[in-house]
């Protein structure tokens, strides 16, 4: 029996390992595609500007400054207005850039203003830190679901499962966000919310000693306590049933719990929202055999009527605010 156990690990272990590998590969694919698309965008804009035959570098850089994130190029003085020293330093590098040819290299190292590949590094750096965060969310979501169901006069929601897939994502990234140079309003997915935000010194510190680990995990606990308080505060909550936003999930979607994870703006107004929701498509008793499988080629189509945690994007489709 011992030999069999050694050579044939339990299925649960293999499944967890496979899930971790799948998540890593998905993040890597996203990183590669997003990075390639954004580098090509910058390359194409530079080529267009050069083709105009402008007289000097200042005119060229002014054309590049028309695109999102590049407005500070070739500006005088210090930027100011940033609470994050790293963001302040990066913004000042943009202000000191006066040649169009320097823009591609500048964009490669633009964190935390934007990530050329859309990936922001994880801030929850250990399994324990991620477990603390997920446990906090699960407790908040369970209470949310119960209170929401009671307020709507619905049956008790049952157990809301912990969002372990989110934990796998947080192993490799804290959030994903398209730099959205065109200002199309793409919403980021801030999986880790604001946990450990602005704590750059602590995040760059090594975690080799027990003392360092204890200090780091204690700060994560403090951050999660603050997160819980904010999520349960009706005035500032981002829970989907408490927050006031101008977009909602599709009417055929049932939601038991979850929260808004990001907003994408066009000008000064939000256009897209991202959310992490425990949801399913509402079963349609009138659906006939001819239409039942018409969307089976869509992602998650075969499981869409099962309760699961999902990333959902919502668009405000009105003409005015």
Radius of gyration: 23 Å
The strands making up the biggest β-sheet line up spatially as 3-4-5
Let me know the number of strands: 5
As residue ranges, the low-confidence spans are 1-13
Integer count of domains: 2
Number of helices: 10
Mean pLDDT: 88
From N to C, what is the helix and strand string? HHHHHEHHEHHEEHE
Largest sheet: 3 strands, antiparallel
**Proportion of residues in extended strands:** 5-15%
Region (Disordered): 1-21
Characterization of this structure:
With 321 residues, this protein is of the alpha+beta class. The chain folds into 2 domains: 31-117, no CATH class; 121-285 and 295-315, no CATH class. Helices cover 43% and strands 12% of the residues. A 3-stranded antiparallel β-sheet has the order 3-4-5. A two-stranded antiparallel ribbon has the order 1-2. A hairpin with a 2-residue loop joins strand 3 (253-266) and strand 4 (269-281). Helix 2 (11-51) packs across helix 7 and helix 6 (127-151) packs parallel to helix 9 (210-231). The termini are far apart. The model is unreliable at 1-13 (pLDDT under 50). Residues 1-21 are annotated as: Disordered.
């Amino acid at each position: 029996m011992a030999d069999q156990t050694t050579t044939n690990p339990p299925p649960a272990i293999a499944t967890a390992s496979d899930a971790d590998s799948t998540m890593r590969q998905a993040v890597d694919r996203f990183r590669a595609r997003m990075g390639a698309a954004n580098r090509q965008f910058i390359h194409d804009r530079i080529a267009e500007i050069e083709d105009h035959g402008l007289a000097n570098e200042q005119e060229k850089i002014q054309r590049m400054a028309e695109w999102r994130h590049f407005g500070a190029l070739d500006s005088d003085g210090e930027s100011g207005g940033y609470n994050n020293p790293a963001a302040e330093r990066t913004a000042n590098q943009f202000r000191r850039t006066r040649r169009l040819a320097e823009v591609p290299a500048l964009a490669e190292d633009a964190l935390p203003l934007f990530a050329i590949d859309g990936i922001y590094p994880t801030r929850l750096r250990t399994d324990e830190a991620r477990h603390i965060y997920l446990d906090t969310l699960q407790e908040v979501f369970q209470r949310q679901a119960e209170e929401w169901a009671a307020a709507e006069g619905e049956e008790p929601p049952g157990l809301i499962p912990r969002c372990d897939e989110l934990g796998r994502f947080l192993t490799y990234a804290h959030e994903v966000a398209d730099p959205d140079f065109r200002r199309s309003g793409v919403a980021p997915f801030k999986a880790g919310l604001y946990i450990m935000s602005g704590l750059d010194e602590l995040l760059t510190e090594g975690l080799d000693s027990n003392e360092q680990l204890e200090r780091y995990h204690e700060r994560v606990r403090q951050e999660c306590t603050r997160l819980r308080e904010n999520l349960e505060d009706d005035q500032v909550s981002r829970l989907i049933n408490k927050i006031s936003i101008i977009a909602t999930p599709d009417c055929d979607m049932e939601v038991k719990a979850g929260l808004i994870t990001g907003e994408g703006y066009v000008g000064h107004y939000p256009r897209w929202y991202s959310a992490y929701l425990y949801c399913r498509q509402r079963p349609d008793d009138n659906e006939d055999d001819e239409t039942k499988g018409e969307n089976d080629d869509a992602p998650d189509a075969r499981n869409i009527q099962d309760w699961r945690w999902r990333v959902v994007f919502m668009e405000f489709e009105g003409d005015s605010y």
